[in-house]
Every structure is written in structure tokens, then in C-alpha cells.
Amino acid sequence: MLKLIALCQKIITNPYLGILVSLVLILPSLYIILEDITVIRKEYLLLAVGIPIYVKSLNKIFDDILNGDKNQL
Q: What is the rounded distance in angstroms from the CA atom of residue 24 to the CA atom of residue 56?
């Protein structure tokens, strides 16, 4: 249980790891869902978890880039 908590903290604090994990969830889910979109599958849940992680990680990366540019001025 502690390893799972530690892994979640790494995903939250490291945006590059967050993007990697979210893409691992999103891409296979999309491949399976697109075979037949009319069937409810567990991949919809994986997609619902993966997309917010992806967006949050990208947001953090872009914020770091923008803040880094301001610090150089």
C-alpha cells in the first residue's frame, strides 16, 4: 500500500512521469474503445483517469516553461 502511495506522489510531482503514465492509460484504451464504441468497457474508466493526469501534467510543464522564461528576464 505504501508503494502505491509513493508512486502516486511521484506521478503528481513529476509532470514527465505523469504524461508517460497517462499515455500508457489513454492509448491502449482508445485502441480498444474504437473497435466498437457502443459497448461499455472498463477502458472508459481508464480514459477518464488518464486524460486529467495528462492535462494536469502538461499544464505543469507549460507553467514551468513560462515561469522559467520570466526568471531569465
A: 15
Q: Which three three-digit cell numbers place residue 3?
A: 508503494
Residue 33, C-alpha cell as written in the block:
474503445
12-29 tens-digit pLDDT: 677 787 788 788 888 888
Helices 15-33 and 2-13: crossing angle, nearest 10°? 100
State whether the Cα torsion 44-1-56-61 is positive or negative: negative
0.70 exceeded by the pTM?
no
- CB contact at 8 A, 53 and 22: yes
Is 31 exposed, middle or buried, given 0-12, 13-18 or 19+ CB atoms closer than 10 A?
Answer: exposed
Alpha-carbon torsion 60, 48, 37, 27, what sign? Answer: positive
